[in-house]
Design goal:
This protein is an alpha+beta fold and about 675 residues long. It has 19 helices and 21 strands. It has an eight-stranded antiparallel sheet. The chain is globular and about 80 Å long. It is found in: Periplasm.
């Protein structure tokens, strides 16, 4: 089995290599050989002499940084605001669960990790990654169901703010001691460069930023116990570990691929946060090329550059995923707020794009507060300041609320949840307040919107929301987090989902299901036979060919028309779709343009339904009913048979959680398919 895996890996790497220009390929081969030699020597060295620096240099260290959270200056204010928000009980409940080591991560359900947490275990399957030099750890084995994202997710320590909030509310020292004990336990079980939790630099960076937040929640209690030598020693080891996180990040930047992604942005955010935290720290023996000032200067410069590289001119992340757009926005926004509190300003071009990024989240958010799950979704977050354990993984309105405060925009504030966002409270000391000048009546109704550079088109009125995908594959055509979803759509009526994108489910834990969820058949669009819009290799889980070349043909406030070429080379077919929005009706016309001389293929049209939608077959149509008893009539014309096939399917509202649902699958016969969806 191991030999088969190696052969499979070689095939994938060979195909990747053949796509590269010769000069880039030669550089990659040279770098690979050089790295092999370097890391072979380093592994021997570190195994014999673990990485360490003199603890004494951190004995009197205190960060000189304006924190993201200004907790200690307004302690009573925060306590009162939390009580007013009704979140007090929820925070304490979740913090107690954390103290009892009960976690629900990536679809695991509630799992008690026991008194002694195993930080290198996928606790969903029981698989454990043995501690050894990080470059020698194989994080992915497609022949088993282990998911390395599980130990990574736990080791992000995104539960720290919840422990801190519970301590703030109750002054109960058990939350401070739990923070201390978990950090000490993690450090002891994850030596630098010697565990699975060092194999991805992004994870190291996110963990470091969450540890920094923990310092500002707990520093007063643990530092005021100065007579307690144990607490003094804790902060020394804590700061040493944080400092070594920074050195590791700088030495292991994820920027060696042809295109950078959210991973590299996370690395840079970590360098900026750590660079600020250790800004005035001096260590005589430190590497002159790897120190806090270098981290900060490099991180800021590259952050600006990546805003230009990774964000399209319309303000949308280029990875072709709505969820990853939100993660990238979170990285940029939280870090920008931290920098502004420390008198660091970004350029106007940077801030203009960041504002557009938040505007995109506001525009794509459905009336129920959820984003459509277009492209990959791994439930990833950067900092979780509210609702840990109860987090709705599809709701990103807290970012819109933060943007409302940062950019002073009433529309952003208006579309935050219930106009009351605890995340804004932590970052700005207040919940969003809409300020309207006398005699001013702002128009806060969202309208239809086109994001042409990135390929997202929203049609909406008072009752109907529909979003259509028609644009480039992710990362300049290189795939990444793209699905085969060109001309697919989601439909929400009166705030309730009817037609959905089924989501992602998992990545490497089950490569067959990973491929199923990104396939053409799992989207609401034309499929020709069993062909894919863009071909992909079975075991290359983050690569996809660039074959659709989708184009917008026309768009206005109630009309969309687009085209893609994904089936042209395979079957001699060009697919076009137009969508017309009326007051209580959507008319969808699909055009199958056949190249003369091409063969005949079976063709299918699918509509994936939310699991709560009930289906009532009628003589010539289907009646769909949602939980609020809202009904729509769906009728297709030009079917091969006069019947609608209702089949079992799947949906994943968050990573790792799969639920059964239904899909309407119709075989079609003519070159034009008319679909009418009408509210009744």
């Amino acid at each position: 089995m191991e030999i088969e895996n190696k052969i499979s890996d070689l095939k994938i790497n060979f195909k990747k290599a053949t796509k590269l220009p010769p000069k880039i390929l030669i550089k990659k081969v040279y770098r690979k050989i050089d790295n092999k030699i370097y890391y072979f020597i380093r592994a021997k060295k570190i195994t014999k002499n673990p990485i360490d620096i003199d603890s004494n240099i951190f004995e009197n260290f205190e960060p000189n940084i304006n924190s993201l959270l200004n907790i200690n200056n307004k302690r009573e204010h925060y306590i009162q605001e939390l009580k007013n928000s009704g979140k007090e009980g929820q925070i304490i409940k979740q913090a107690d669960r954390i103290c009892n080591h009960i976690f629900n991560l990536l679809g695991s359900g509630d799992i008690n990790l026991g008194k002694d947490i195993q930080w290198n275990e996928d606790f969903k399957t029981g698989f454990i990654w043995e501690n050894k030099f990080y470059k020698n750890i194989k994080t992915v084995n497609l022949q088993n169901d282990a998911d390395v994202k599980v130990p990574w997710e736990l080791s992000r320590f995104q539960h720290i703010p919840t422990l801190g909030q519970a301590y703030l509310l109750t002054n109960n020292v058990k939350y401070a001691l739990e923070f201390k004990n978990q950090i000490e336990n993690w450090i002891s079980k994850n030596p630098i460069e010697m565990s699975v939790n060092w194999t991805c630099t992004m994870e190291v960076a996110i963990r470091a930023c969450n540890w920094i937040i923990g310092y500002y929640f707990f520093k007063d209690y643990l530092k005021n116990q100065k007579k307690n030598k144990i607490n003094q020693e804790f902060w020394i080891e804590y700061h040493k570990a944080l400092y070594l996180h920074g050195k590791f990040i700088f030495d292991n930047l994820e920027n060696t691929s042809h295109y950078n992604s959210n991973h590299y942005l996370s690395d840079l955010a970590g360098l900026i946060w750590l660079g600020l935290y250790f800004k005035n720290f001096k260590y005589d023996q430190e590497d002159a090329q790897n120190n806090p000032k270098i981290w900060l200067d490099f991180g800021l410069k590259e952050f600006e550059q990546e805003m230009n590289n990774q964000i399209n001119s319309d303000g949308v992340d280029y990875e072709a995923s709505t969820a990853y757009h939100c993660l990238v926005t979170e990285l940029f926004l939280f870090t920008s707020i931290l920098c502004s509190k420390n008198n660091i300003a970004f350029t106007k071009e940077y801030k203009d794009k960041l504002e557009k990024m938040i505007e995109f989240i506001m525009d794509i958010t459905k009336p129920d507060g959820h984003i459509p799950l277009i492209g990959d979704m791994d439930s990833g977050r950067f900092i979780i300041l509210s609702d840990y354990g109860d987090l709705d993984k599809r709701d990103f309105r807290h970012l819109v609320a933060l943007g409302g405060e940062y950019f002073k925009r009433n529309d952003f504030k208006y579309y935050s949840p219930n106009h009351n966002c605890p995340v804004s409270l932590w970052c700005f000391g207040k919940t969003p307040q809409i300020k309207i000048k006398t005699n001013e009546k702002p128009n806060l109704n969202l309208a239809s919107k086109a994001y042409k550079d990135s390929g997202y088109y929203i049609l909406r009125n008072d009752k109907i929301y529909i979003i259509i995908k028609c644009g480039p594959n992710g990362m300049n055509g290189n795939g990444g987090h793209t699905h085969n979803d060109q001309l697919s759509f989601e439909l929400n009526i009166s705030g309730i989902d009817f037609v959905i994108d089924p989501g992602t489910y998992v990545y490497t834990a089950d490569y067959r299901l990973r491929n199923l969820f990104r396939s053409t058949s799992m989207h609401n669009t034309l499929q020709v036979a069993n062909l894919e819009q863009n071909n992909f290799e079975e075991k290359e889980l983050f690569g996809i060919n660039n074959e659709t070349n989708a184009q917008l043909l026309d768009f206005n406030y109630n009309y969309f028309k687009g085209r893609h070429y994904g089936f042209m080379e395979k079957a001699g077919i060009i697919a076009e779709r137009e969508v017309k929005l009326e007051d209580n009706k959507i008319i969808i016309n699909d055009f199958i343009i056949k190249i003369p001389g091409s063969l005949d293929y079976k063709k299918y049209m699918r509509f994936h339904l939310d699991r709560e939608v009930k289906i009532e077959p009628q003589a010539d149509c289907l009646i769909l009913t949602n939980l609020t008893n809202e009904k729509i009539k769906l009728k297709l014309f030009n079917l091969q048979k006069s019947e609608y096939n209702i089949e079992k399917s799947w949906m994943a509202k968050e990573y790792g959680l799969r639920e059964e649902t239904r899909v309407i699958n119709c075989e079609i016969k003519d070159s034009v398919i008319n679909t009418i969806i009408e509210i009744i």
